[in-house]
C-alpha cells in the first residue's frame, strides 16, 4: 500500500511555524479547509497530520472523491494560522491550487486523525 513511499516519521516545523505556535493566546479557532490541486497520492495527509500534531491541534483530514483534501482543525488561533500556512506549502510533490477556509465548530474528539475518504 504505502510501502514504496519514503515518508519521514516526523516533519519538522519551520522557524516561522514554531514562532507562531509559541505565541499562542487563549482564544480557540476552528476552521474547515478544502485544499485543491495535486494533493492526493503525494503524502499530503501524512504531512498535514504531522504538522497538526506538532502544533497540538485537534481535528481530522480526509481525501475527497473530487481529488481535493478536506480538513477540520481547531486550536489556538496562532497554531491554526501556522497549520494553514503549512497546508498552503504542502509536501514535496504536491501543487496547491487553492484553499477554501470556513469557520467551523470544534471537533468532538481531541487529537488529530485521518478520516476515511469521502
Describe the overall structure.
The protein is an alpha+beta fold. The chain has a domain at 27-107: Alpha-Beta Plaits. It has helices at 15-22, 44-54, 77-89; strands at residues 28-38, 58-63, 69-76, 95-103, 112-114. A five-stranded mixed beta sheet has the order 4-1-3-2-5, with helices on one face. β2 (58-63) and β3 form a beta hairpin. α1 (15-22) runs antiparallel to α3 (77-89) and α2 runs antiparallel to α3. The longest helix has 13 residues, at 77-89. The radius of gyration is 13 Å and the shape is globular. The chain starts with 14 loop residues before the first helix and ends with a strand. 31% of the residues are buried.
Brief descriptors of the model:
alpha+beta; Alpha-Beta Plaits; five-stranded mixed β-sheet; globular
Amino acid at each position: 500500500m504505502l510501502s514504496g513511499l519514503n515518508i519521514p516519521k516526523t516533519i519538522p516545523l519551520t522557524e516561522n511555524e514554531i514562532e507562531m505556535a509559541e505565541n499562542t493566546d487563549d482564544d480557540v479557532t476552528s476552521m474547515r479547509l478544502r485544499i485543491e490541486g495535486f494533493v492526493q497520492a503525494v503524502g499530503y495527509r501524512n504531512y498535514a497530520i504531522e504538522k497538526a500534531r506538532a502544533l497540538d491541534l485537534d481535528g481530522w483530514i480526509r481525501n475527497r472523491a473530487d481529488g481535493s483534501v478536506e480538513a477540520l482543525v481547531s486550536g489556538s488561533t496562532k497554531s491554526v494560522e501556522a497549520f494553514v500556512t503549512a497546508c498552503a506549502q504542502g509536501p514535496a510533490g504536491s501543487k496547491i491550487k487553492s484553499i477554501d477556509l470556513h469557520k467551523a465548530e470544534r471537533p468532538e474528539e481531541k487529537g488529530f486523525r485521518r478520516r476515511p475518504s469521502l
